[in-house]
Amino acid sequence: MSADPAGAWDRLLPQMQRYEEILDASKERVERAMEEAIDAGFAESSDREGRLLVPVRAGIRAGVVEVDWSAEPLAEGTRLRLEVIEEVFRTSTAAVSILAIGAAGGIMTVVWPLHPDLLGLAPLGALLALLAWLLVVSRLRSYGPEDFLSTVADLASEEEDSIPRDIR
Question: Which of 1, 90, 133, 158 has minimal Cβ neighbours within 10 Å of its Cβ?
Fold first, then answer.
């Protein structure tokens, strides 16, 4: 048995995701923007210092990502860094059920020429497939830590007086 090439384990183990952005604002302003984003409901404070719970959505999966954040001053502004510590996702069973019904309808629509007895069910199958599209697929959204980071960047770049209190 031959030995693994160098770095093989690095490819197999999950890599820590890092997001960073250099903002044209002071460290204090960036920290206030983080607090404003948390107050607006874009994230929750974790039990541990310097960590946030950021709600995420990835298609039919929704969850929360725990991130470790830091802000370090630079000559040209402040570097805001988010490092993902843990991700927890849950799949929407209602969306999966609706998609399964829509897939069955799509199969009925395609299979009826092979089985002419299903001709009466073909319009129902097409309707089920269309409803699944309208109820689930057309409403899929995705957002994650990078969107939270851009929200904080937007808040930090605005004037203090122009920041809306109710962002949602």
Answer: 1
Q: Yes or no: say if 59 and 140 are a contact pair by the CB < 8 Å rule.
A: yes
Name beta bridge partners: 57.
62, 143
DSSP bridge pairs for 45: 52
* Number of residues that this document lists for the chain: 168
Q: Are 104 and 126 in contact (CB under 8 A)?
A: no
Are the beta carbons of 80 and 149 closer than 8 angstroms?
Answer: yes
What 8-state DSSP symbol labels residue 121?
G
At residue 141's C-alpha, the angle toward residues 54 and 32, to 5°, is 30
Q: Is the Cβ–Cβ distance between 167 and 38 less than 8 Å?
A: no
Please tell me what DSSP assigns to residue 13.
S
Q: What is the Cα–Cα distance from 118 to 134, expressed in whole angstroms?
A: 24
pTM: 0.67
Q: What is the DSSP letter of 119?
A: G
Q: Radius of gyration (Cα) for the chain, nearest Å?
A: 23
Strand 77-91 to strand 61-74: parallel, antiparallel, or no bridges (unpaired)? antiparallel
The model's pLDDT over 40-97, given as tens digits with 9 standing for 90+, comes to 887 877 666 678 888 899 889 999 988 888 888 888 889 989 898 888 999 999 999 9
If we measure between CA atoms, which residue out of 51, 49, 43, 56 comes closest to residue 67?
Answer: 51
